[in-house]
């Protein structure tokens, strides 16, 4: 707690509110005593300016384009780590030693299978079901197949059997949901493949056409998952914390997070970006049509993949993803007209005063879909890929929320009521 305080004057009475300071120097008004002291609540729709908790997991500075997990710059992590190493960091607070990483890799292999009875569930989803609905449903059912262990041994820091299971199994469920979606036989996880290579193999291996895992795809997937692994109190993470604060376990909380991520303003944006780029392509690259529509205040249309609630400069993840995108397409010798369209759109936006004055830059979703397309991952799986990446962040926040008395209070925002105050009840026979 900082020694500084803030004075709030309401109707001539001065109230003193504490100021709290983050480890990086940002200050916040602590309004927890406001209602008790003054009878007032704060109104902040969309939580634009509300800190919901204190957290030690991820730091971001949206004006400088800084993103750090547990103090490490995202650029260093993306350049030097594999995804599960970063998952380990998010969950335990420390990068693993070589021995710890080996153990964690072993756990990813050991827990990769899902109960055979769960596989029957896949059969009963209608054809063309959304892989996101399958994912959230299946994660919910893990609760029954693999009951969470309250008092399990803690093999390494914050890691438990339940978290290792969930991390490994989500990857299997994601790949199985794709195979079921296209009606192909399931491909089981292999013990000799790394986390990302295993996922790609489960997605693309076929009995008559064995899949060769391209090293560039493994590199790119590791980077993409790392760059999506956490992003402090975003919509889905806040959902995980809020649902978890009601006292439910990890699986239902994560299942709720998956549903929140699905939305086109959040994780679903990577799908919407591709649809938008395809639309521009079909319209003979009529950029002006799309840009004017997005700028029209009477039209709700937005250019998906631009803008971010927190970043008011270039999203550091988007910068790295753009580099990965170019590397993947070059190495795989893939030509995708959507990449040229994306680059041209970004160029035009960067010179358009409407977007410049509102600090609208490409976000994490703008180039990621083009990489997934080059890898052969279909559009309806993009948000599932995001969920795979975001899982360690969700779990870390759920754990942190549960371990801190203050932030594990049940989440319960207030409101400013604007409805009818009171009126006499009218019996049904008198209602006309
Ligand atoms: N295209 C056109 N105009 C935009 C866009 C956009 N993509 N994004 C914001 N604006 C405009 C708004 O119309 C508004 O203009 P105004 O001041 O004239 O009214 C101004 O910029 C500020 O926008 P807000 O809606 O206040 O910004 P907010 O922080 O609420 O929204 C959001 C952030 C939801 C990401 C928004 O930029 C958006 O809808 N982007 C497109 C969807 C998208 O890409 N989502 C993925 C985000 S990343 C993620 O979740 C992983």
List keywords for this structure.
432 residues; mainly alpha; Rubrerythrin, domain 2; Citrate Synthase, domain 1; Cytochrome p450-Terp, domain 2; three-stranded antiparallel beta sheet; 18 helices; 6 strands; binds acetyl coenzyme *A
Describe the 3D structure.
This protein is mainly alpha-helical and 432 residues long. The chain has 3 domains: 5-51, Rubrerythrin, domain 2 (Single Sheet); 71-266 and 379-403, Citrate Synthase, domain 1 (Orthogonal Bundle), CATH 1.10.580; 287-375, Cytochrome p450-Terp, domain 2 (Orthogonal Bundle). Helices cover 50% and strands 6% of the residues. The protein contains 18 helices and 6 strands. The chain has helices at residues 34-38, 74-80, 83-92, 98-110, 116-123, 131-145, 161-182, 195-204, 215-228, 235-245, 250-261, 269-282, 287-295, 316-331, 337-350, 353-357, 365-375, 382-403; strands spanning 5-10, 13-21, 27-29, 58-61, 66-69, 72-73. The strands form 2 sheets. The chain has a 3-stranded antiparallel beta sheet. Strands 4-5-6 form a 3-stranded antiparallel beta sheet. Strand 2 (13-21) and strand 3 (27-29) form a beta hairpin. Helix 6 runs antiparallel to helix 11 (250-261), helix 7 (161-182) packs parallel to helix 8 (195-204) and helix 9 (215-228) crosses helix 18 (382-403). The protein is globular, with a radius of gyration of 24 Å. Bound molecules: acetyl coenzyme *A. Residues 265-267, 269, 294, 302-309, 358, 360, 363-365 line the site of acetyl coenzyme *A.
């Amino acid at each position: 707690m900082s020694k500084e305080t803030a004075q709030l004057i309401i109707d001539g009475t001065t109230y003193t509110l504490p100021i709290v300071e983050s480890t990086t120097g940002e200050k916040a008004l602590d309004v927890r005593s406001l209602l008790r002291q003054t009878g007032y609540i704060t109104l902040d729709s969309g939580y634009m300016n509300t800190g919901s908790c204190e957290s030690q997991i991820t730091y971001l500075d949206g004006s400088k384009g800084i993103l750090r997990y547990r103090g490490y710059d995202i650029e260093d992590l993306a350049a030097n780590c594999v995804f599960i190493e970063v998952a380990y960091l998010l969950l335990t607070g420390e990068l693993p030693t070589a021995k710890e990483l080996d153990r964690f890799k072993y756990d990813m292999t050991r827990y990769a299978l899902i109960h055979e009875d769960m596989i029957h569930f896949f059969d009963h989803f209608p054809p063309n079901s959304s892989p996101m609905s399958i994912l959230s449903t299946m994660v919910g059912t893990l609760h029954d197949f693999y009951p969470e262990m309250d008092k399990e041994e803690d093999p390494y820091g914050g890691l438990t059997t339940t978290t290792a299971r969930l991390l490994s199994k989500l990857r299997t469920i994601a790949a199985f949901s794709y195979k079921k979606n296209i009606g192909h036989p399931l491909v089981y996880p292999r013990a000799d493949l790394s986390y990302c290579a295993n996922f790609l193999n489960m997605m693309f291996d076929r009995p008559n056409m064995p899949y060769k895992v391209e090293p560039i795809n493994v590199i790119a997937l590791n980077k993409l998952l790392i760059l999506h692994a956490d992003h402090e109190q975003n919509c889905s993470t806040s959902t995980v914390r809020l649902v978890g604060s009601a006292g439910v376990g990890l699986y239902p909380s994560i299942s709720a997070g998956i549903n929140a991520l699905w939305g086109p303003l959040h994780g679903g944006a990577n799908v919407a970006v591709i649809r938008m780029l395809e639309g521009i392509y079909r319209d003979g690259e009529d950029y002006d049509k799309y840009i004017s529509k997005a700028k029209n205040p009477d039209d709700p249309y937005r250019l998906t993949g631009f803008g971010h609630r927190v970043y008011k400069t270039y999203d550091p993840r988007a910068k790295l993803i753009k580099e990965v995108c170019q590397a993947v397409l070059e190495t795989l010798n893939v030509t995708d007209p959507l990449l040229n369209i994306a680059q041209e759109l970004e160029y035009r936006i960067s010179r358009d005063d409407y977007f410049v004055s509102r600090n609208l830059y490409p976000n994490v979703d703008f180039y990621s879909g083009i990489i997934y397309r080059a890898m052969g991952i279909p559009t309806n799986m993009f948000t599932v890929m995001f969920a795979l990446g975001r899982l360690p962040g969700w779990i870390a926040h759920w754990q942190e929320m549960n371990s801190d008395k203050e932030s594990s209070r049940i989440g319960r925002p207030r409101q400013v009521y604007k409805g009818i105050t009171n009126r006499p009840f009218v019996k049904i026979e008198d209602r006309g």
